[in-house]
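Hi Y.,

Following your request, here is the sequence exactly as I used it, all 297 residues.
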Amino acid sequence: MNWTVSIIGRSMAAAAAMLLAALCAGAQTVPGNLGQSSNGLPPALVNVGFEPPLNGQMPLDLTFRDETGRSVKLGDYFGQKPVLLAFVYYGCPMLCNQVEQGVVSSMKMVSFNPGRDYELVFVSFDSRETPDMAAQKKADAVSRYGRPSTAAGWHFLTGSRDSIDAATQAANFRYTFSEKTNLFAHASGIMILTPAGRISRYFYGVEYPTRDVRLGLVEASQGRIGAPIDRVLLFCYQYDPTAATYSASILKIIRLSGLFTVFLIVAGILIFRRRERVPASSNLHQPASVHREQGAH
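Below is the corresponding structure, written out as tokens. Let me know if you'd prefer a different format.
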């Protein structure tokens, strides 16, 4: 028995030694410099981010060119309606296309129409891009959206480096450019702005829940668009800037349920009291002959 235990022990020790040697050899094959910063991100992504300041003011006096080549001010799209704004670049091979498709897919499910209820603005952060590229992107987006009558509410802008920098800095949208790949590293998301140009809400990623976007537009419009049910939903849901989404407010829902319960109780009491009064009043208005006949019996 001791001989067997001894062999098993030596075998386990040999296996442990071989495993340790393999780990050491593997560690030696890993490059000492993986090109990551202290926060674990590759250098190309260290300065990339998107953290819009709520209630921050976008500079509306910036000059751009729209998809027709016409010189416009960013403020031309503000004043009356809320604005959905996204930073993209039209030559992006993947992520920006997904942002645009995400916007189209989400807005197709919303009854609001661009141009009538809100404005859609895409701003290219690549100063080399042209209005022709913007026009092609607009044509593709409007075609996918499927409501050609709303084309006037879609705007695809290009601009100078100064205008782009001022707009992206106001939104705290940061990106980097690689000379080697000729591509930008950037974040993805959209912003909902008030008619005055202030950042009201923002949503991250490339897919935007229809409920959240709708509530964001209603809230940014200060009640100018939307239905009464939207006001109820805004009472029950509140925007969480850390998660960039609307979430149910349990306390508000409990309060609303309590008010509804009180309303039902009061309504029930009134209905029962009214029913009690009807027979009493009918007895008072019975003919005198009826009362005499009852007395004779």
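The helical segments are 2-29, 95-108, 131-145, 161-170, 210-220, 228-236, 250-284, 288-296.

Thanks again,
Q.
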